Amino acid sequence: MSPATATGFTVLIPARMASSRLPDKPLADIAGVPMVVHVARRAVQSAATRVVVAADDPRILQACQVHGVHALLTRTDHASGSDRLAEACTQLGLDGDAVVVNVQGDEPLMDPALIDAVAALLTAHPEASMGTAAHAIHTLADYENPNVVKVVLDARGLAHYFSRAPIPHARDHAGQAWWQGDAAQATPGVGALHGFAPLRHIGIYSYRAGFLRQFPGLTQAPTEAVEALEQLRALWHGHRIAVHIAAQAPGPGVDTPADLSRVRALLA
């Protein structure tokens, strides 16, 4: 049994109705069930002691209640999901040391084991305020794609930096998948890196509840503004983020109508 399982943790699922690419996204029908309910049902399969949807609209609250999912209503004017979760922590009266896992409301295929692993990070790394996950990048296209967020770790498994740029940057081997296979072995100076791959960040987070309540009050980091990556605010202010390396990518999330069609087919 993992430490996170033994001590328990809370899963919070932020859900808001406004979405420019997919209006009313939390209530999107997937096999006769609203998407946010699918997410909650996945989270319930984890070791969490409580799963709560933090909604911004009474319609989400009602849909959750119909399906037996615990939900609470938060303000509509939050700037980010972490702000919404901070309010939810206050409403729930969570102790400052309590572990909270943020599972996005558009991840109906989230692996419950990944939730457990990210929760366990904060027990394994008492110096960390946050935990998250990543998996190996296998293609040059993903490595160079600015929509694929990369993360570089230190020797303890803590995040050095997150970026939309290709990091770490192989100065002498641009334009090739320098970390892969026989070609990498044959490239002078790269063979020692065989088996290493850049890491793609997975958007799931664990927090200590006290830090989560503090986070919205931290000033925005210049790096956060440039990269449009909120987690850089924590690093800028000296907080540490532990990272779990997953064996594979999680199932696809839902951002667009095309994503929704794909997930509907997978869950049909």
List key phrases describing it.
single chain, 268 residues, alpha/beta, 9-stranded mixed sheet, two-stranded antiparallel sheet, 11 helices, globular, disordered N terminus
Structure in words:
- The chain has 268 residues and is α/β, with parallel strands linked by helices.
- Helix content is 33%, strand content 21%.
- It has eleven helices and eleven strands.
- The strands form two sheets. Strands 1, 4, 5, 6, 7, 8, 9, 10 and 11 form a nine-stranded mixed beta sheet that branches. The chain has a two-stranded antiparallel sheet with strand order 2-3.
- The protein is globular and about 55 Å long.
- The two termini are 33 Å apart.
- The N terminus is likely disordered.
Q: How much of the polypeptide forms β-strand, as a percent range?
A: 15-25%
Per DSSP, the total helix count is: 11
Under the CATH scheme, the architecture is Alpha-Beta Complex
Provide the residue-averaged pLDDT.
89
| Low-confidence region ranges | 1-6
Write down the oligomeric state. Answer: single chain
The number of distinct structural domains comes to 1
Give the termini distance in whole angstroms: 33 Å
- The CATH H-level superfamily is Spore Coat Polysaccharide Biosynthesis Protein SpsA, Chain A
Structural class: alpha/beta
